[in-house]
Amino acid sequence: MDAFDLDVRRHVYFSVVANGRPPSTTETSEDFGLPEPEIADAYRRLHDAHALVLFPDTTDVWMANPFCFGPAPHRVMARGREWTGTCAWDALGIPAAFHGDGRIESECACCGDPVALEVSDGELVRGAALLVHILLPARRWWEDIGFT
């Protein structure tokens, strides 16, 4: 990634924190004062570098890890807003990203039972005895990051 792509990525994350959602390429092009195709190319390069995840065949941001902007079973309350994590690991990453407290509500992938976790002062204070099972080794996550 070059400096421009890093600036675009930073802009996406700042927008997520400020607005609860990623900016469209149109919004980013307006903010940068650049043509939208140039911003769309940057989004695609960030996707190819695994720095953002785009919805298939679009330039719409699906994930700016640990944040997810599509349907996902992991709901996170942090910083006064509800967020979504793609997986349990990302859900735990949302309070960490804010260096704050958070509550995670999800369900067991095996049996469907409700699961609740709570983070306070950087510590998992509720649900610490639970295990997270990740089906694929990390080296294979990007084969289908939406599944992982």
Could you please describe the fold and organization of this structure?
- The structure is a single chain.
- With 148 residues, the chain is an alpha+beta fold.
- It folds into two domains: 3-64, Arc Repressor Mutant, subunit A, CATH 1.10.10.10; 68-138, Super Roll (Bactericidal permeability-increasing protein, domain 1), CATH 3.15.10.
- It contains four helices and eight strands; from the N terminus they run H-H-H-E-E-E-E-E-H-E-E-E.
- It has helices at residues 3-19, 25-32, 36-48, 88-97, and strands at residues 53-54, 61-64, 67-68, 74-78, 81-85, 102-107, 114-120, 123-126.
- The strands form two sheets. The chain has a five-stranded antiparallel sheet. A three-stranded antiparallel sheet has the order 1-2-3.
- Strand 6 and strand 7 (114-120) form a beta hairpin.
- The chain is globular and about 50 Å long.
- The model has no long low-confidence stretch (mean pLDDT 93).
Task: List the total number of helices.
Answer: 4
What is the radius of gyration? 16 Å
Main beta-sheet annotation: 5 strands, antiparallel
Give the domain tally. 2
Under CATH, the topology of the largest domain can be stated as Bactericidal permeability-increasing protein, domain 1
Per CATH, the superfamily of the largest domain is Alkylmercury lyase
Query: What is the CATH class name of the largest domain?
Result: Alpha Beta
What is the CA–CA distance across the termini? 24 Å
Structural class: alpha+beta
**Please, what is the average pLDDT?**
93
How would you classify the quaternary structure? single chain
- Identify the strand order in the major beta sheet: 5-4-6-7-8
Classify the helix fraction into a percent range.
25-40%
The general outline is globular
Q: Which CATH architecture of the largest domain is right?
A: Super Roll
Order of helices and strands: HHHEEEEEHEEE
Q: What's the count of strands?
A: 8
Q: Strand share of the residues?
A: 15-25%
Poorly predicted segments: none
